[in-house]
Specification:
homodimer, alpha+beta, Glutaredoxin, Glutathione S-transferase Yfyf (Class Pi), Chain A, domain 2, four-stranded mixed sheet, 10 helices, 4 strands, 56% helix, globular, GST_C_Tau (chains A, B), transferase (chains A, B), Glutathione-S-Trfase_C_sf (chains A, B)
Chain lengths: 226, 226
């Protein structure tokens, strides 16, 4: 790719979906500009024009063309910057499996864990239990491997990366316990390896700031989820 | 690929998700076996073992390896049988757009249209209106093209194919009107071209049988959606 290409992320500091895109570009060594969106205030005209359907972050703008949806942006990044650090596996079956578990992670872990954090009593317990059950599947997928991408961080590591630094915050904010290192030893090791990865560790949002932010979100959303 | 490869679909005759996989294999000229699942009776041991997470069809079994989730199966088919009829576009940006609108179709059209069919009064009207609004986006995407894949049927045509033969059945069963050829002329032409395509027209389920089946489903699901 030429040196003068424009690569810009419209993001929000606490969004696990936005972090995926930042990590993927870091792995590719692709320089990008970043614009923080005021998601709960006034969204920028650029966000509204580049993502008119969902009006959400992340948006990746590459030479004036917008791509949205974090998992689809990962595919686009891998299809576009092919020179370095392949993100998806090469084998068609491995690719299918990585995509399957990434979608599973969003549907059975990320969404339910967020809702459990903001729920109370019975709903919280049921939600937390269902997330723990889903973690069992991932423990099986990871067995014998350091990363889901085997030797290094790949598509599925990036998709599930939020588990490694955000789940613990959600557990604290939601006064719930989901992750158990004795029950999920492979996942526990993976979480450590992931947050210690040189391209990840300096990109994570401050823990204290996340706690304050998600406590605030939960107050606002509690009525919706209970 | 070798001649002795095993390609099998676990399916259900009225599932638009299953049809996608059948069409894609037909486009590739890949011979496959088909096993009908009794989704509302007893699911086969093969289904439960090949899709333990969701226990749903379609499952594509290729040389004993199962792939699930219809849109991911399309990617797998395109990654595997590369010799003929590329399903996804080549250009990274076109690929991202095709994936985006396919997901949009499932989230903003297929799910909502099905629920509107089974809902009553206010909910039906609101649901049908939201589907019509979403069709406006697709009309814009299609403008000036015969197929979403431009010259021939591609990934997005396959993903949205259900619109061309099933939406009208759902409109009849649900006593609602969503599609309007005057408002969406490009989509109306596309629907005709799609169901007339030589590889599609002989694979569609009988209309009368669909009406009876979806009427029955609606009776069962009405209490859930109202």
């Amino acid at each position: 790719m030429g040196e003068r290409e424009e690569v810009k992320i419209l993001g929000f500091w606490a969004s696990p979906f936005v972090h995926r895109v930042q990590w993927a570009l870091n792995l590719k060594g692709t320089h990008f500009d970043y614009a923080e969106e005021d998601l709960w205030g006034e969204k920028s005209a650029l966000l509204l024009s580049t993502n008119p359907v969902h009006k959400q972050v992340p948006v990746l703008i590459h030479n004036a063309k917008p791509v949205v949806d974090s998992l689809l942006i990962l595919e686009y990044i891998d299809d576009t910057w092919t020179h370095r650090h392949q993100i998806l596996p090469t084998d068609p079956y491995d690719r299918a499996m990585a995509r399957f578990w990434a979608k599973f992670g969003d549907e059975k872990l990320l969404g339910p864990a967020f809702r459990a954090m903001c729920s109370s009593s019975e709903k919280k317990v049921m939600g937390a239990n269902s997330v723990a059950e889903s973690l069992e599947f991932l423990e099986g997928v990871l067995k014998g491997k350091k990363f889901f991408g085997v030797e290094n961080i790949g598509y599925l590591d990036i998709a599930l990366g939020w588990l490694a630094y955000m789940l613990e915050v959600w557990e604290e904010v939601g006064s719930m316990k989901i992750m158990d290192a004795n029950k999920f030893p492979c996942l526990a090791n993976w979480m450590k390896s992931f947050v210690d990865h040189p391209l990840i560790k300096d990109s994570l949002p401050p823990r204290d700031k996340m706690v304050v932010y998600f406590e605030e979100r939960c107050k606002i959303l509690a009525s919706l989820f209970n």
